[in-house]
Design a protein that fits this description.
The complex is a heterodimer of chains A (about 700) and B (about 290).
Chain A: E1 9-17, H1 22-42, E2 49-55, E3 58-66, E4 73-81, H2 82-85, E5 86-87, E6 90-91, H3 93-101, E7 109-114, E8 117-126, H4 131-145, E9 152-153, E10 160-161, E11 165-172, E12 175-176, E13 180-181, E14 184-185, E15 189-191, E16 201-203, H5 207-216, H6 223-239, E17 243-245, H7 249-256, E18 263-268, H8 278-286, E19 292-296, E20 301-309, H9 316-343, H10 348-352, H11 365-377, H12 388-397, H13 405-408, H14 418-426, H15 431-439, H16 454-473, H17 487-500, H18 507-522, H19 528-545, H20 550-559, H21 564-578, H22 583-596, H23 614-635, H24 639-647, H25 650-659, H26 667-684
Antiparallel strand pairs in A: 1-3, 1-11, 2-3, 4-8, 5-6, 7-8, 9-10, 11-12, 13-14, 15-16, 17-19, 18-20, 19-20
Chain B: H1 3-16, E1 20-22, H2 36-39, E2 48-57, E3 73-82, H3 88-98, E4 108-117, E5 122-131, E6 134-145, E7 148-149, E8 155-160, H4 161-169, H5 185-203, H6 206-225, H7 229-248, H8 257-286
Parallel strand pairs in B: 1-2
Antiparallel strand pairs in B: 2-3, 3-8, 4-5, 5-6, 6-7, 6-8
Helix pairs in contact in B: 6-7, 6-8, 7-8
Classes of the chains: A alpha+beta (about 700), B alpha+beta (about 290).
């Protein structure tokens, strides 16, 4: 028997817009997908798959195999209390509203008791709407709800999007789903490539037809596809020349997000500019022009560059010559700045820092440098480091490049620190100083390069903590979703560096020094607890991002809130220990100590003469024997052994609680027992607060 | 294509597309956005389509005529269309064809740009348009003018005429641009550049300029009180230019800059509010 093939319901939605910023595209496309999933699930429309594709001027949503309509649903709805819905056997206003709102007749409603009170219960049947209707009603909302860092309006309907929407193609199979967004009415039309195909209008018959047309006309709607094609074409171009591009994922991503077609060309710039620092050339090429740098196979830098064009090959020889000209004038400017900067000893710029604003209301960069130098001169009170002279000199020089010609140009501002280091090196300063200056802005994000030299690390730390305190003092403490100066990220960078570099520093002491310096300059301070609390929260996030369990994080932070480096090590030890089968039992034993001590208990010493049971004596003896050992191991940061040692108390603790009644009627004895447990807890808590760890009873 | 033909072609093109061809406003200004044809006309419901050339002054950018691309005086070609037509990108690309740039033979990029003029309190979203690596146009949908949200939205196209001319004529210095068959851009402007650079960087009388800045600011405020926003706006232009000269003279410290910019912006805002109240709302009532 021949089976009639079920009709497949496929939806194609293409939102066509004027070029969106490259970094808006991926997140919005993801949102388009998840919002559509939520919509269909919420509306009881089944489907097989939802796919999204995107280019710089279109979002494409493709849903396959949807049901014809929503599922019908039956459910019981609880209404008002009977004595409120009816008075003297007649419907009250409230009762009427319930009937009307739910389109009920008497036979739909039952009166049932719940906890002794009578309520109205209606059995409700909702017939599923056609999928088409669900979509035409909800797709405009989905478009409207797409979030962008910045949105705009473009016509008097005042609808918003990141850039103007110019067309909407929406087909359910071969039928247009009609809806409106602003002034744009959905249709079956798409538009081809803007330059290469003159934005040609094409009428689309079905989703298959659409993908065929897009493919035939060479429009690439997948980011991976575009990235691969760029790399493939570049490799083809460079293979014979024995060259390769300098890898730059970020640039590749940005370029691939900006084109619908791809044509690759190679250009050259004057050899003389190869004498500039490579980073300067790379910056001049990538920041504005979006060119890839080219190296030989052995990594040696060359005077070639690669440009990607959104379109065909036509006239490329001429086009690339024009690009070379533009690059020539950019490199010419850079070279001029570089030579001019080198003419003046960089120290001379320090005084000019008085003209550079730091944070609004907090003076100049010059005053910041004064503070940095002060932190450096007291560095040995914060960390075990004694070469204050080198460090202080580095601090004095570290911001001088801000006033150079090169860094004053917006395009090159990303090279601050680096250029300072280069100039110092060229002007004969010692390696330790120029390296420290060069590195001191790192890390810019968690996972970024870290300073290598000790001076670089310390200078970076002081610079960042000084910024952070400054933002708090100037009133830019992050609140809720507001964090215009990315203060949270800066805090994470600090935690990241301290953790990775395993710095053993006294942060509270550092905060105090920073606070004193600001107070001297501006006669104001903030409550340090605010910063400590803030860092605590940041550290929780930092550890969470590293997949440390929430309760373990709490146990650590509760004990030692600001020892970022130690805390990471402790987290590793505890996460590892949790994998063992006996972990729960150990934690349970340790938490028994905590749980029995009243919150308001005041320690007043242990008197061994009050001990009357063996278990008591054994536990305390074990504790006395190991107390100093725990301290030493913590000092050595051997947290693995600290945990093992504490865990080894388990049998003695278990025996103790099995045999000894802590809360006995004998006040003296009870008090003494609590004192002993208190002393033990006080020692353990130097490591972590075990009572915060959740015992899994499974 | 000569410099003058470039201008004429753009004018012809945009006239055909329904723009009136206006002339520059007769005062110094840093950008074509400052002209009445843009600033005041961004407000109000009535359609407004205009194209005009506008001389711009940026004292700080002067280089004594020695830099091939940087001048303290140059031209912008400005198109304003309100409401913004839905095919404005195609219209713009058409204008490039009109001046000899065949779209299919070049690398054209629309690079995102959030445009802002802090002194006018103006902002918008759009792109810088790049032709074979060279920025040739600022393409902006205005969102705010004088800090006031706009509706309907105007689109602003600002062509950098000298850059485009250098590109089309394939010359390496702005001063070698051929104005017509015989006269170069240098013939017309080189001496001006030298003299104005000297003035802007060396001889502008700082004390006098600070004084007139304040007097002009007060005059502007007084005129707003007298319900004369259009003459008052002249004083926005004046103090904005004076600020730019003082800036070129390095007479304004970085920490003082914001307060000067705020004064200009505040006066511009007063002018705009007064213009809306006195000119636009009155016209509305008459309708």
């Amino acid at each position: 028997m021949g089976q009639i093939k079920q009709k497949q319901n496929n939806l194609l939605l293409e939102i066509g817009f004027e070029e969106l910023p490259a970094d808006y595209l991926f997140p919005a496309a993801q949102q388009l997908k998840t919002d559509t999933e939520k919509l269909l699930q919420g509306k009881n429309v089944s489907y097989k798959e939802i796919k999204v594709f995107w280019t710089v001027r279109r979002f494409i949503l493709y849903i396959t195999d949807m049901s014809d309509k929503q599922k019908d649903i039956n459910f019981i709805k609880k209404g008002p209390r009977y004595d409120i819905a009816y008075k003297d056997g007649k419907l009250t206003d409230i009762g009427k509203t319930f009937f009307e709102k739910n389109k009920l007749t008497e036979k739909d409603v039952e009166i049932k008791e719940e906890n002794g009170i009578k309520y109205l219960f209606a059995s409700i049947f909702e017939k599923g709407e056609k999928t088409e209707k669900v979509l035409s009603e909800n797709l405009p909302l989905i478009i409207k709800n797409l979030k962008f860092p910045k949105s705009m309006v473009w016509d008097d309907t005042l609808v918003t999007f990141a850039r103007p929407i110019r067309w909407i193609l929406c087909l359910l199979n071969n039928k247009v789903i009609k809806f409106k967004y602003g002034k744009v009415i959905s249709s079956s039309k798409t538009y081809l490539h803007k330059f290469e195909q003159n934005n040609k209008e094409i009428k689309i018959k079905s989703s298959e037809h659409y993908f065929e047309i897009i493919d035939k006309n060479g429009i690439l709607i997948e980011q991976e596809q575009r990235k691969n094609k760029i790399i493939m074409l570049i490799n083809k171009l460079l293979k014979d020349k024995n060259l390769q591009i300098l890898k730059d994922e970020e640039l590749l991503d940005k370029i691939a997000s900006s084109v619908e077609m791809i044509s690759v060309m190679i250009g050259e710039f004057d050899n003389q500019y190869l004498s500039l620092p490579q980073e300067v050339i790379i910056t001049a090429m990538r920041e504005h022009q979006r060119y890839f740098a080219v190296t030989k196979k052995d990594g040696q830098f060359t005077n070639y560059f690669i440009n990607i064009r959104d379109g065909g090959q036509k006239n490329n020889d001429f086009v690339v010559k024009q690009h070379s000209k533009v690059l020539f004038s950019r490199l010419n400017d850079a070279s001029f700045f570089y030579k001019e900067d080198l003419k003046i000893p960089i120290e001379k710029n320090i005084d000019k820092l008085k003209e550079a604003v730091f944070i609004t209301g907090l003076g100049s960069m010059y005053e910041k440098v004064v503070r940095l130098k002060n932190y450096c001169s007291q560095v040995n009170t914060i960390i075990n480091y004694n070469e204050t002279d080198v460090l202080t000199k580095s601090a004095e020089l570290c911001k001088a490049d801000l006033m150079t010609n090169m860094i004053s140009e917006k395009e090159f501002v990303g090279l601050r620190g680096f250029m300072g280091g280069i100039y110092l090196k060229e002007q004969g300063h010692s390696e330790r100083i120029y390296k420290a200056v060069m590195e001191h802005y790192y890390p810019n994000f968690v996972g970024d390069k870290l300073p290598v030299t000790t001076e670089g690390v310390l200078l970076s730390l002081f610079d960042k903590i000084d910024n952070l305190y400054g933002y708090f003092l100037a009133g830019f403490k992050p609140t809720g979703s507001k964090d215009p100066y990315a203060v949270r990220r800066q805090a994470l960078n600090i935690i990241y560096m301290i953790t990775e570099k395993k710095l053993d520093i006294d942060l509270v002491q550092l905060f105090n020094i920073v606070s004193n310096n600001y107070e001297i300059q501006f006669k104001k301070t903030i409550d340090l607890n605010e910063i400590i609390e803030f860092f605590k929260q940041r550290q929780i996030n930092y550890l969470k991002d590293r997949e440390v369990d929430y309760d373990i994080i709490n146990s650590i932070i509760d004990a030692t809130p600001l020892n970022f480096s130690d805390n990471m090590q402790k987290a590793i030890v505890l996460m590892e220990a949790r994998k063992n089968t006996d972990f729960n039992d150990i934690i349970f034993a340790l938490s028994r100590i905590n749980n029995i001590i009243p919150a308001d208990f005041i320690f007043n010493g242990v008197k061994e003469e009050y001990f009357d049971s063996n278990e008591e004596k054994v536990l305390y003896m074990k504790f006395r024997e190991n107390k100093d050992k725990i301290d030493n191991l913590i000092k050595q940061k051997n947290f693995n052994q600290v945990f093992n040692l504490i865990a080894s108390f388990k049998p003695e603790i278990d025996n103790y609680f099995n045999k000894v009644l802590v809360n006995t009627d004998d006040d003296l004895k009870r008090n003494n027992r609590l004192n002993m447990l208190y002393e033990i807890r006080a020692q353990f808590i130097k490591f972590v607060n075990f009572s915060k760890i959740v015992v899994d009873r499974k | 294509m000569y410099f003058q033909d470039l201008i004429l072609n753009l004018q012809k093109y945009w006239a055909k597309k329904g723009c009136i061809i206006a002339q520059p406003y007769d005062m110094e200004k840093g950008a074509a956005t400052f002209s009445h044809s843009t600033f005041f006309r961004a407000f109000g419901d009535n359609p407004w389509n205009v194209a005009y050339i506008e001389p711009c002054r940026r004292p700080k950018d002067g280089r004594y005529g020695e830099n091939p691309n940087r001048m303290q005086h140059y031209y912008q070609f400005q198109v304003i269309m309100k409401p913004a037509p839905s095919d404005i990108q195609q219209l713009y690309l058409g204008s490039l064809e009109k001046i000899g740039i065949k779209i299919k033979e070049h690398d054209i990029k629309f690079n995102e740009d959030d445009w802002e003029s802090p002194t006018l309190g103006a902002s918008g979203l759009g792109w810088q348009v790049w032709l074979d690596g060279l920025e040739i146009t600022q393409f902006t949908y205005f969102q705010q003018m004088a800090g006031i949200e706009l509706n309907p939205i105007s689109v602003e196209l600002t062509y950098g005429l000298e850059r485009i001319a250098m590109y089309i004529q394939n010359v390496d210095s702005v001063y070698n641009i051929k104005w017509d068959k015989h006269i170069t851009y240098g013939d017309v402007f080189l001496e001006n550049e030298k003299q104005f650079s000297s003035y802007n960087f060396e001889y502008a009388n700082i004390e006098m300029l600070f004084n007139v800045f304040n007097s002009f600011y007060e005059e502007g405020k007084t005129l707003v009180e007298k319900q004369l926003p259009i003459p008052a706006y002249d004083y926005v232009l004046k103090i904005s230019h004076i600020f730019n000269i003082l800036d070129a003279r390095k007479a304004i410290s970085i920490s003082d800059r914001p307060s000067f910019i705020k004064k200009i912006r505040d006066l511009a805002k007063l002018c705009a509010e007064s213009y809306i109240k006195i000119v636009l709302n009155k016209n509305k009532k008459q309708e």
